[in-house]
Amino acid sequence: MQDRYNGRHGIDDTDAIAAYERAVAALAGHRPSAGAALDEAITRAPDFVAGHALKGFALLTLGREEMRPGAIQAAAKARSAARRSARLTESESVLVDALDLAVAGRFLDASAHLEARLREEPLNFLLLKLAHALRFMAGDTPGMLAATSSVIHAWRSDEDASGYVFGCHAFALEEAGRYAEAERFGEVALALAPDDAWGLHALSHVDEMNRRVAIGIRRLESTRDVWSRCNNFQFHMAWHLALMCLESGDAERALALYDEDIRPQPTDDYRDVANAASLLWRLRLAGVSVGDRWEELAVLARRRAAETTLMFASLHHMLSLAATGDTQGLDAALAAWEAHAASGTGDQACVAASVGLDLARVVAGRRTDFARVMGRLPAIGGSAAQRDVFVQTLVHAARSAGDGEAVRSILALRRRQRGEDAFGNRMASLEAA
What we know:
Layout: H1 14-28, H2 34-44, H3 49-60, H4 68-84, H5 90-103, H6 107-118, H7 125-138, H8 141-151, H9 162-175, H10 179-192, H11 197-209, H12 213-222, H13 224-227, H14 233-247, H15 251-262, H16 270-285, H17 294-303, H18 311-323, H19 327-343, H20 347-363, H21 370-376, H22 384-400, H23 404-418, H24 422-432
């Protein structure tokens, strides 16, 4: 039986499939109801292959070590249900195999496996969304755009989930620096799916990279009714608003957004921590006092100092450790990643070896080849806007080390990506003085 989002299932339980559809719809719109709907689907149909697989992927994308056992268990249940199925479909089989690869830390291989099936089922929204998310976490911007570009021609405006697909394509275009196209697809995405927070997110990135601060602030303030209904993605959207306020010179408003909308509760989700730590670090680099806001982040960072689940998450925890002068915690994080890089196990070991460890050493106050790190930065994952906190860190570190050539090189590359902004102009003036 087929669901609304073109996934084909070897079960006929219409109630379970309806619950699964609600889970996929909530995933598409970043709504908080996804987990409950998915649990309902699995409860109604314990051998729901796609349900178990989607749960495994959801746990993995949380990026926390304690989620891994649950993801492994979900993968085992999906595999067991697949073996028992008398009518296992190709899309179900692909989800199971891809989840096994992802659980093993091979996000890029998992994405490629999903996309291979996507060539046969270009209208299978979930395969695209999962591959998009995995490549985003793995820092593969070209792969994101290749995937959305390969199927975008097949999506008509009357297809279920077409707005969300256009939103994914808009984001991939933006990350590739194709801002005009990204804006066009983002606007279409929102016209088709007004609750498409990811499409709105892509437009906010376009505003930031084009330095359209006033437009960006108005866009986000006027769409609060969309993004404030999201799951924790609402904190990230508020983060974008705070960055634009900071760019406009309103640090006081940025701090107010931190307290009210970005960090209203001390969650331990790495994405929430990344929003918080990166904003506070930008304010720190700008010489703005943030009071005692670092303290609760540092408590979480010390707890996770030795984790090697996701380099992007660890680097943001290290910002909190560095801001509070916790050299012991920084040493523990570096030692853990050095060991993981040496193991060569999974994508993240490769990320650590190629760029992550060097960047971590910069955060810890150590010297490296700053310009080389800048050139490899996309591999840590996240968006260009998120990685900019580390670009700014590299500029400050290179300047402190007296490496003027690296400062100029990094600033020039940054300017090509986003033009002139307050940070770039300030640092260029200091370097020229």
